[in-house]
Design goal:
Family: Belongs to the oxidoreductase MdaB family.
Number of strands: 4
Order of helices and strands: EEHHEEH
Strand order of the largest sheet: 1-3
Shape: flat
Largest sheet: 2 strands, parallel
Number of domains: 1
Oligomer: single chain
CATH topology: Rossmann fold
Structural class: alpha/beta
CATH class: Alpha Beta
CATH superfamily: Flavodoxin domain
Number of helices: 3
Protein name: Flavodoxin-like fold domain-containing protein
Organism: Pontibacillus marinus BH030004 = DSM 16465
Cofactor: FAD
InterPro entries: Flavodoxin_fold (IPR003680), Flavoprotein-like_sf (IPR029039), NADPH-QR_MdaB (IPR052397)
CATH architecture: 3-Layer(aba) Sandwich
Length: 82
């Protein structure tokens, strides 16, 4: 088992952020963590603790690389010294 270990998912979506958390959009009101729930369960089963997922959205049609580079640094800064 992997008790005491932590994990973090980093995802890229071609969907815009607005596709989440809206019952009328593709993901039917689910957020990113909901969509990844099955993967979180696998890690939970092994005893690992999840950190908040980092996600980039609309990566093909509207990539904002500079924003996501800063956002990733901020995200990691919540958990580690970067």
């Amino acid at each position: 088992m992997l008790e005491g270990k932590k994990y973090m998912f980093s995802t890229t979506w071609n969907a815009p952020a607005e596709a989440f958390n809206d019952r009328n959009k593709f993901f039917e009101g689910r957020n990113v963590e909901d969509v990844l729930f099955h993967l979180h369960l696998i890690h939970k089963y092994t005893g690992m603790e999840g950190l908040k997922t980092f996600s980039c959205f609309d990566v093909k049609k509207n990539p904002d690389i500079d924003f996501y580079k800063k956002d990733l640094k901020d995200h990691l800064g919540r958990y580690f010294q970067v």
